[in-house]
Specification:
The protein is an alpha/beta fold and about 300 residues long. About 45% of the residues lie in helices and about 20% in strands. It folds into three domains: about 5-85, Winged helix-like DNA-binding domain superfamily/Winged helix DNA-binding domain (Arc Repressor Mutant, subunit A); about 95-165 and about 270-295, D-Maltodextrin-Binding Protein, domain 2; about 170-265, D-Maltodextrin-Binding Protein, domain 2. It has helices at about 5-15, 20-25, 30-45, 60-85, 105-120, 130-140, 185-195, 200-205, 210, 225-230, 245-250, 280-295, and strands at about 50, 55-60, 95-100, 125-130, 145-150, 160-175, 195-200, 215-220, 235-240, 255, 265-275. Helix 2 (about 20-25) crosses helix 3. Pfam families: HTH_1 (PF00126).
């Protein structure tokens, strides 16, 4: 027997919605059309899939049994479609996404997860780079996408530019540090005399006057190492405001409230990409991953 994807989609939708009307809305079809598709499928398999009554549509025992096979078949068809789309990009079997070191790892992980979902066959290199390195990589096309701090960025004619938003930075310290127990009106003076761990990429990109508060500060190249040093109570740091979304970070760090820097520091972040038609769908996928992160921390 040969079944169409339309039939399987109608069967799965009616099974999950328990309603021809709701299934029709989900599929963009009229309820009577969905009902006819189901009736034709039942004739084809010689099995009654649903018991109809005035209030609900209930799967029969055979309907329950066949549902998981229909669901699997639809999922496999979707995967086939995504793989075929990925392969259709020809030479774009791999892309490089470069990003500033201050970006939370969770954001990058959600981007990669979205790319796997949308382009299963696409190989992706994820590289920490400075704004200038990303600019150079886009110029020589060794990098296809860049997620960057654009505080002092100048325009590039061959770059597609999408503003993501402002990423707020606030002070963090170990939950067990002296800073964590100070009254809010005493915090600012304490921050100025306590060792500060500063992300080097923020300094390299011209933000030293905004991010360096303590004369006693260390420049750190990696966000993960900055977190580790701060967790051990060796100092404090400015980090993205909602980085405590990570359970591990939340168990070890706390945001330090400070009257004089209540608003924190906001770093504008943008997605740069080459102006290329084959990259447009991949860019949409990256943006979906970014949107997932924004929704999560919102």
């Amino acid at each position: 027997m040969n079944f169409s994807l339309e039939q399987l989609a109608a069967f799965v939708s009616v099974y999950e919605e328990r309603s021809f009307s709701k299934a029709g809305s989900r599929l963009g079809k009229h309820r009577t059309t969905v009902g006819q598709v189901i009736a034709n499928l039942e004739d084809q398999v010689s099995v009654e899939l649903f018991e109809r009554n005035t209030r609900s549509v209930d799967p029969t025992q055979d309907g329950h049994f066949l549902y998981r096979y229909a669901k699997q078949a639809l999922d496999q068809a979707k995967t086939f479609d995504k793989v075929a789309l990925s392969l259709s990009f020809g030479e774009l079997d791999a892309v490089t996404v470069a990003y500033s070191s201050f970006l939370p790892h969770l954001a990058i992980a959600l981007i990669r997860e979205q790319l796997i979902d949308d382009f299963p066959a696409l190989r992706v290199s994820l590289l920490v780079r400075t704004q200038e390195q990303i600019r150079e990589g886009l110029a020589d096309e060794s990098i296809q996408f860049g997620i960057v701090n654009v505080t002092k960025a100048s325009a590039m004619s061959n770059i597609d530019y999408t503003m993501i938003g402002n990423m707020p930075f606030v002070p963090f310290a170990s939950k067990y540090s002296d800073l964590a127990s100070l009254p809010e009106d005493q915090v600012y003076d304490a921050l100025k005399t306590t060792r500060q761990f500063v992300l080097k990429s923020l300094v390299d990109e011209g933000l030293a006057n905004h991010v360096v508060l303590s004369a006693n500060h260390d420049l750190i190249d990696q966000l993960a190492l900055t977190i580790k040093l701060t967790q051990k109570g060796l100092g404090w740091t400015l980090m993205p405001k909602n980085i405590e979304t990570s359970d591990y970070v939340a168990d070890n760090l706390t945001e330090i409230k400070c009257e004089k820097i209540r608003g924190g520091l906001s770093v504008p972040v943008a997605l740069w990409s080459l102006q290329s038609k084959p990259l447009m769908e991949i860019k949409k996928s990256i943006q979906k991953g970014i949107d997932s992160y924004i929704e999560l921390i919102g």
